[in-house]
Amino acid sequence: MGMTDGTGALGLLSGGLDSQLAVRVLQQQGIAVRTIVFDSPFYDVSAAIKAASALQVPLRIYDFTDDIIALVQNPPHGLGKCMNPCIDCHARMLRRAGELLAAEGCRFLFTGEVLNERPMSQTRRAMGIVAEESEYADLVLRPLSAKLLPPTKPEIAGWVDRMQLLELNGRRRSEQFALAKAYGLQSYPSPAGGCLLTEPNFCVRLKELRQHEGLDDRRLVRLLRVGRHFRLSTGHKCIVGRDEADNAKLSAQRAAEDVELILPDDRPGPTGMLVGPAPEQALREAAAITTFYAKCPPGEPAALVVRQDGRPPFALTVQPFTANEAEACSIRLA
Ligand code: SF4
């Protein structure tokens, strides 16, 4: 599947049902469709990858990390219920997609947005702002609700047949499910499921990181998805893996100044990571937390192995934290 001849459409593909339907609605008119998804530490693109492969449409994965972090820190249109700058995020995604139109051999953009389906970003007003601020306003088509919206250039110029577009409105999704069946779409995740910026627990961590280390260190932002997080009395951060997958990610993302804590003799258990450079007191607290989650018997000294770049591994024995002590420094929803 190569480039289109310049008459194609470039669609934002989340992998959710609406974005998949929008692809099919345009394909039905014989329009060559390509898709794009915006990758960041807050957004899981796996649903989009899966959908693109099921739909057999080309997918470009765009690194949106710098854009979205800048918008989280300074959202001109404000945040939603959590840390989600949805209006600005949508507008920026459309702008980035717009900048790629020529490179993708396409002449207009489309999204799976449905009028009034989401409270913040899909009202008539919000959708207008989004298109306007994207700087590609007249080229943004919403095939699922187009008949309820002002005609766009693709419709006026006859690139698409407006008559064959839809007029979906509101949160009721029965029509979408019927269409999915008609188009034979098999798998689609729940809407908005992919964005961590709408998850309350994640946002507690994100705000906390912004206050302490800031959001400039992309590694620390990426690590927010991994394990349990703690703020030590010294102000340092400790992360403890919840399972083997977490442990592997912590080891893989450890920086030279970080300290890794594991059980002796390669016994299975949580990996602790102390974000360094950190003093002895922080190391002892991180070890006390890690041994608590390793289920070391309370009240008895427990040993860990400390690994850090530039010095040989060594053993450290501490008194494990109690559940209350661990809870007190945990970074999560109260
Ligand atoms: S839910 Fe997340 S990805 Fe979607 S528009 Fe809002 S901030 Fe952006």
Report on this structure:
This protein is of the alpha/beta class and 334 residues long. It folds into two domains: 8-197, Rossmann fold (3-Layer(aba) Sandwich); 200-328, no CATH class. 35% of the residues lie in helices and 16% in strands. It contains twelve helices and eleven strands. It has helices spanning 17-27, 46-55, 65-73, 86-99, 124-133, 153-156, 174-183, 200-212, 218-223, 244-253, 280-293, 323-328; strands at residues 8-12, 33-39, 59-63, 106-110, 140-141, 228-231, 237-240, 259-262, 272-274, 302-308, 311-318. It has a six-stranded antiparallel β-sheet, sandwiched between helices. Strand 10 (302-308) and strand 11 (311-318) form a beta hairpin. It starts with 7 loop residues before the first strand and ends in a 6-residue tail after the last helix. 42% of the residues are buried. The model has no long low-confidence stretch (mean pLDDT 93). Bound molecules: iron/sulfur cluster. Iron/sulfur cluster (SF4) binds next to helix 4.
Topology:
Blueprint: E1 8-12, H1 17-27, E2 33-39, H2 46-55, E3 59-63, H3 65-73, H4 86-99, E4 106-110, H5 124-133, E5 140-141, H6 153-156, H7 174-183, H8 200-212, H9 218-223, E6 228-231, E7 237-240, H10 244-253, E8 259-262, E9 272-274, H11 280-293, E10 302-308, E11 311-318, H12 323-328
Parallel strand pairs: 1-2, 1-4, 2-3, 4-5
Antiparallel strand pairs: 6-7, 7-9, 8-9, 8-10, 10-11
The structure holds iron/sulfur cluster.
Residues 43, 84-86, 89-90, 121, 192, 195, 197-198 line the site of iron/sulfur cluster (SF4).
